[in-house]
Amino acid sequence: MGAAIFIQSGKVEIRNCTIIQNTAQGGTAGEGAVAGKGLGAGIFNYQGTLLIQNSAIAQNFADVNPDFEGPIQSAGFNLFSQPPAETTLLPSDLIGIDPRLSMTPATASETPTFPPIADSPLINQGKSIIPEDQRGHPRSLTEPASIGAFEPDLVVRIVAVRLMAQNFELTFNALQGRRYRLQSKTSLNAPWQTSPIVLLGRNDYITTVGPLPSSSTAYFQILLDF
Prior knowledge:
Layout: E1 5-15, E2 18-20, E3 43-53, E4 56-58, E5 68-69, E6 73-74, E7 79-80, E8 94-95, E9 158-163, E10 167-173, E11 179-185, E12 193-194, E13 199-200, E14 205-211, E15 219-225
């Protein structure tokens, strides 16, 4: 019961969380007994009052009610794959939709989380009252935020450039499911030169390496490759 969260009693609020890939298994039966059933692998609310907002609860595994067991109240902007019958839903909740999450956890925080991939329905469909995501990255309180624990940065930003003897290293943020190419030029008015190498996003940072330009000045930008 409650492989991720078990609520015995009291008032609990869950906000900006991603609860997936948990498993609840029933106990084995002794002689003459019946084996137990796994219940509520995501959240098991026994006798508590549970409020959920801007969270994704999906893809959990149990014999009965894999995502939830017990009543919940929605504060809106959630994705539930299988909400229980006792759920009070709001129009902003997404129901029965694949969250489209990367199965490679992002590890840029103390605890890993599963980031949404580029075409995820979680992106910009939520509303947050907390100004940062699980990793400490900024999250808007006034514009649409993403549902769950991970706030993708949809704006490509070059965050570091390192010059070595013959090469340079350039680091930028990337979103899984998107493809990128590096563009460079040696003067402001020169045409951009596009690298033939396609860089695949993976929801953290990509570092690409290239030869130093022959001139003392260089300009770089990242091209989103469709």
